[in-house]
Write a structure and sequence with these properties.
Chains A, B: Catalyzes the conversion of 3-dehydroshikimate to protocatechuate (3,4-dihydroxybenzoate), a common intermediate of quinate and shikimate degradation pathways. Chains A, B: One of its GO terms (molecular function) is 3-dehydroshikimate dehydratase activity. Chains A, B: Belongs to the bacterial two-domain DSD family. The structure is a homodimer of 617-residue chains. The first copy, chain A, folds into three domains: 263 residues, TIM Barrel; 133 residues, 2,3-Dihydroxybiphenyl 1,2-Dioxygenase, domain 1, CATH 3.10.180; 188 residues, 2,3-Dihydroxybiphenyl 1,2-Dioxygenase, domain 1 (Roll), CATH 3.10.180.10. Chain A has 21 helices and 25 strands. In chain A, the strands form three sheets. In chain A, strands 17, 18, 19, 20, 21, 22, 23, 24 and 25 form a nine-stranded mixed beta sheet that branches. Chain A has an eight-stranded parallel beta barrel with strand order 1-2-3-4-5-6-7-8, surrounded by four helices. Chain A has an eight-stranded mixed beta sheet with strand order 14-15-13-9-12-11-10-16. The interface between A and B is large, with 57 and 57 residues.
């Protein structure tokens, strides 16, 4: 199949779009009419630009309100088509995409529409053109691909074929089995779009919320599998209307688009004629093995003081570099102060921050291969300064996601670090529960695709959380066995805690790191003894807790004493305790899960209000 | 009725909300549970704060998932209520708002619910408390106010009453006649919210898109009129969940909220016991009489050069001040360079810009009275520098909207200006067609309320326009006879033309002023002779025009020669011609309407793309 994208998906001028589309690796492009109309150059010049960038125009679109018209509108529609054929000749494409009519003048009737298309096919044939008919989800009469297929079948003309669009099919919840009865060569165009599950009118949903395959909730995989069964081998093209994409970076969006097609088409068989490439299947990572902080010497002192107060010890020191390992249970926190390292370059841009997360993986060779196919170019660090040789890809905010092979022997900790056998080992905290990162809306879609495509993570339903300065959208992702969890937060409101975090980090940044304990009260008691500053919780919160849950006064009193938040779901209970913000940027969360599956969304408003208070004071 | 607002409507901490609510003039407040829970002070302290600000807590809310529960949940729900009664006692309110259950455990049945409420009434009575029952639009069994009323009626307890919420009633499209059969004293609480017409699930619509009465599309007037008929005299309270409000200015939002209640309740009869005040009815303004520019001496030279190129002449000069009047047909453009004037203070903040618009009105005394009642405090200018004494209110971006009395004799132009009888009068342009202003989303809602409440303007459906840097939302408003029209544009994307305009003006600013002509081609020909720079239109646009409309090649050729845009609707044709941007800020649009009713939305993408190109070059 030819990987393609419609110009309407991207922001910018037509020239910027063409450059970004070519650079991202696409071979095909759909020219959206408005982009051509507003271009201040001739069609001939557009064609040269496309040729220079090695792009084939897979279709010119949309041609609207064609079929079913009575006189005199019918004749006018054919005249209009002839004009578009003129333009297409100049542009160098032979396929016009016709979407089902929404015209108030249009009349219904399958046969009437088929007759119109037969005549259009005759005219198209004379010009060596073809037309592809698409059922819009909100078409006046035709809004179901089974009906558009019946019209194409009856039009019975070799120059008239079908256009299938996943959004329109799924938004009307049409079954996919009929697809299997359509010969692949009668399908002229396939448009793929994903979308979040939203309950709203089809038109608004389509025009503002579409997203790339792998970023939404539609079962694209099922569609692609049926599509392969038809034998279709034409354009596989993105047609996404998305408010964030229209406002975002042209190049980044185009790159995400390309990888989303590779991901959507991952089951495709290898074929010399197409770009449909098999990508290796991999296991999801099993755990967060380490979290690396970019710190100055002074920040290291302050941060490790806090870590000591949480029971961490300085377990090892890098043999050659300015890098320390702080450890507790199975949690490895790396302090990187090595000059000229990735960490220190990151520090220059973002200040004290999490610059990398290491994930424990199996068969890292396959993961690297998969990353390459998905255009998440793996990096191995500077061999002068980063000796471990662990491959990584760029994650949120250009931090690194290391893929640490669990079969690597001896493990890098042994190879590279000198261990301090005399370090006091506490055992309050045992593993990383989840990492919460704040990012822009645009980067949220990018990250969802990355975590799904690379690490097989599943999304949980998004939640809106109220911050004193506005709403924050929160999206949790987890590996199937819940070994690795990330929560992503973003906001369009400029005065929220999330926005302040974004400003502070000059971009995306980690907001909190949740570490799990088996005994929250023992941990809290230790923290009190260590004089650890925790996020204060209001007294009113505990009064409300008493009303909401069946907790003894004694338990409530204990929760209150230690500033511990509490929640329950149908699976069990959940305890949360936050430290104060470190340098106004991030904090640690201590959690205890007794079966509970969520991330404490019910307590998020409390946290954000307290953090806002802390940031303002 | 007691004007009230729920804390959830506003951004900020509880303290900030209480201060803003009191300052805006409200007497009542609904304490939303989360605001109390996250407040870091005792309930007692909240009560003192409320007392200090003269605010009465009309209700504590929401109490969820109460009715219809089987054992053991039922008992737990009553325990929960008792805890809330404790809290309410301390807070100093006697009304608990209970919204209909969405609990999976809840069982249906009107009588079961009524029995639960009777028992709750008994408990409430013992504590001198009352409960108000509200049908949530997405309640599990009860989502219709007629059902919640039946439950209240059968509960048959003096301490159990009804809560009516306009959003829930209108979102389910429930009829309003049943309201007239409910005795006013059985209604304990009325919540008012407006919303735009959106087709989406009730919950998302309610949680993100509600707005103040007069800002949306719901028929609030009909509800209020029925409400008065019931004899209800309790709290009239705003409960708005709106993403922009949650992120916006606490004080400004509270002020808009208060005036929206005055506006919604405008038909109310005067009563000594309530704040329900009659506001004088007024006629809409008939025309834009003048537009005033804040300019430096140099900018005046450049701007009036452009005006000359459009056929304007320097018609008059202010007798005492540095103010010139430029005129053509019925269009008056005022250049204000007078030191220390409102215009020059505005200039210091915003640079060259439109600082005021004068509207021709009848009975300005009544309009001033209406403005006062609606808390749009009228201003009269500095008597030292602004001698005309014309009252004004603040419009978008703190510019002034003057209300010029058409009965004022002699008119201010005669009183204050020396006319140049020898000035050459052209007659290409005859009146102001509309003024387009760019503003933030938040200010858009504020402005819609202002234009509706003060000038009886009607909104047209909003449209989304594609700019190369993102989507722009456009809202047109018109007086009923179309004498005055404004279009408001806003965007959340930071790289759009609209955003650049906002940045340049350091806030809201006029983007273009549309002036109408009877003969666009003669005007264009004159402009060519005057070497007026116009916004270039692409050749591809004209090819597309030929396909879309039945226009002769000759007409197309003429349109193309002069860079004139064209559109049609069912009423007629429309011609548009834009000048280049003045100082990268605003431009003039010359329009000819032959019956056409819109504002050329079909050509907006063309304009924005061209303007983006101009701003980037």
């Amino acid at each position: 199949m030819i990987y393609s994208i419609a110009t309407v998906c991207l922001s910018g001028t037509l020239r910027q779009k063409i450059e970004a589309i070519s650079k991202a690796g696409f071979r095909g492009i759909e020219i959206f009419e408005n982009d051509l109309i507003t271009h201040n150059g001739s069609v001939h010049e557009i064609r040269s630009m496309l040729d220079d960038h090695g792009l084939e125009v897979v279709t010119y679109q949309p041609f609207r309100d064609f079929e079913g018209l009575p006189a005199p509108y019918r004749q006018k529609a054919f005249d209009r088509a002839e004009r578009k054929f003129d333009l297409m000749e100049e542009l160098g494409t032979d396929l016009l995409m016709v979407c089902s009519s929404v015209s108030p003048q249009a009349l219904g009737g399958i046969q009437r529409a088929a007759d119109d298309f037969h005549e259009l096919g005759e005219r198209a044939a004379k010009r060596n053109m073809r037309v592809a008919y698409e059922a819009l989800g909100w078409g006046k009469y035709v809004y179901d691909y089974r009906d558009s297929w019946e019209i194409v079948r009856r039009a019975n003309h070799k120059n008239v074929g079908l256009c299938l669009d996943t959004f329109h099919i799924f938004s009307r919840q049409t079954e996919l089995d009929t697809m299997l009865n359509i010969p692949g060569d009668r399908i002229f165009l396939v448009q793929v779009a994903d979308a979040p599950s939203l309950s709203m009118d089809h038109l608004s949903w389509s025009r503002h919320y579409r997203c790339f395959p792998g970023q939404g909730d539609l079962p694209i995989g099922q569609f692609v599998s049926n599509l392969h069964a038809t034998g279709y081998d034409g354009p596989f093209s993105l047609e996404i209307f998305n408010d964030q994409f229209r406002a975002g970076s042209t190049e980044k969006t185009a790159r995400d688009g390309y990888r989303s097609l590779v991901y959507a088409n991952r089951a495709a068989e290898k074929s010399a004629d197409t770009e449909a490439l098999e990508i290796p299947s991999v296991n999801p990572p099993s755990e967060v093995q380490f979290i690396e902080f970019a710190v100055s010497d002074n920040e290291k002192l302050a941060l490790t003081k806090l870590l000591s107060q949480l029971g961490f010890c300085h377990a090892a020191t890098h043999k050659r570099k300015g890098v320390e390992l702080w450890k507790q249970g199975n949690i490895h926190l790396v302090m990187n102060m090595e000059p000229d390292s990735f960490a220190q370059n990151f520090h220059q841009q973002h200040g004290v921050s999490v610059c990398a997360v290491g994930l424990t993986c199996t068969n890292v060779g396959d993961m690297v291969e998969r990353a390459k196919k998905l255009e998440f170019s793996p990096v191995y660090g500077n061999p002068e300064n980063d000796t471990h040789g662990i491959p990584a890809i760029y994650g949120p905010g250009q931090s690194l996601l290391y893929m640490v092979d669990d079969a690597d022997q001896p493990p890098h900790w042994e190879r590279e670090f000198k261990w301090h056998e005399d370090a006091t080992q506490h055992a309050f905290l045992n593993k990383v529960d989840h990492v919460a990162t704040t990012m822009s809306y645009e980067e949220m879609l990018h990250s969802v695709l990355l975590y799904r495509a690379m690490f097989s993570m599943k999304t949980m339903p998004t939640v809106s959380v109220s911050d004193p300065g506005g709403l924050v959208k929160s999206q949790a992702l987890q590996t199937p066995d819940k070994g690795v969890s990330f929560t992503l937060n973003s906001t369009q409101a400029s005065r929220t805690v999330s926005s302040r975090i974004l400003d502070q980090y000059a971009g995306t940044g980690v907001n909190h790191i949740a570490l799990s304990t088996k005994d929250i009260f023992a941990t809290a008691e230790f923290m009190v003894k260590q004089q650890t500053e925790t996020m204060p919780v209001t007294a009113n919160y505990y009064d409300d807790l008493a009303a909401r849950f069946t907790l003894s006064d004694e338990v409530i009193e204990k929760l209150k004493r230690y500033n511990i938040l509490y929640d329950e779901d149908e699976n069990g209970s959940f305890y949360q305790l936050y430290t104060s913000m470190f340098a106004g940027r991030f904090c640690f969360e201590i959690v205890q899960r007794n079966g509970y599956q969520g991330f404490g969304a019910a307590n998020s408003q409390m946290r954000l209000t307290m953090q806002a208070r802390e940031l303002m004071s």
